[in-house]
Amino acid sequence: MNRQTRLFVASAGLVFGLMLAASSQASAQEGAPQPIGPFVVDLRGSIVPFGQNAALAAPRGFSSSLTPTLGLGVEAGAHAYLYRWRVITFGLGGSVHASLRDRSAGELDPDPNGPTLRKRFVALSSQLSFNFGNRDGWSYISGGLGTSRYSLFALGHEGTQRRTSTINYGGGARWFTSDHLALSLDLRFYALTPLAAAATEPSSPRMTLMVFSVGASIK
Predict the structure, then answer these.
(1) What tens digit of pLDDT does each residue of 159-208 get?
(2) pLDDT tens by residue, 136-170
């Protein structure tokens, strides 16, 4: 099991466990729980296992082993909760994500004086969510459509980076420690549509990126 797979399993297990804890906490509260809503705003930091994809690196003239592997970023989103049916509250919203990582050539690389390579991922996504719990804490699963730009380039030679259609799906939880502030966790997958080579742009393969985010929610 490689490093990326271990990170995926650990992150997925953590979020799934916390989602169950949030649901259990909500169901155990005394009295009639208050409904989720009417809106929430998220601001989180993110970890993104970029990996080393030869199908992305080779058309750009790079070796995949010399590209950055783990990105750091930020994510912001807003969601409105419109309708409740039994134990499910339906929400609509969206998010914007941005992450990057640089890798400079080292002494052991084939070309120690080679360029610094940057990977950057930017995504704008809509989301339909299914939420379980009450206004003091809830878990959710969600998904939607959007666009993203996943680029690999040498610093100083960015060029034009194309956007591609992207499906996002995942889940998470929010725990409110006060009337308006919560701890927020989200595990999300972005499925990127492949891009064919153009006159001035190389091709990009079909890819799925995992993003694990933790931060705060405000209502």
Answers:
(1) 778 899 999 999 999 999 998 999 999 999 999 999 999 888 899 999 99
(2) 999 999 999 999 999 999 998 887 788 999 999 99
Closest CA to 192 of 206, 211, 212: 206
CATH number of residue 77's parent domain: 2.40.160.20
* Domain count for the chain: 1
Q: Which domain holds residue 174?
A: 3-29+37-96+104-218
| pTM of the predicted model as reported, rounded to 2 decimal places | 0.85
Cβ proximity of 69 and 48 under 8 Å: no
Residue 23 CB partners (closer than 8 Å, separation 6+): 132, 133, 138, 139
Cα gap 15→21, rounded to integer Å:
10
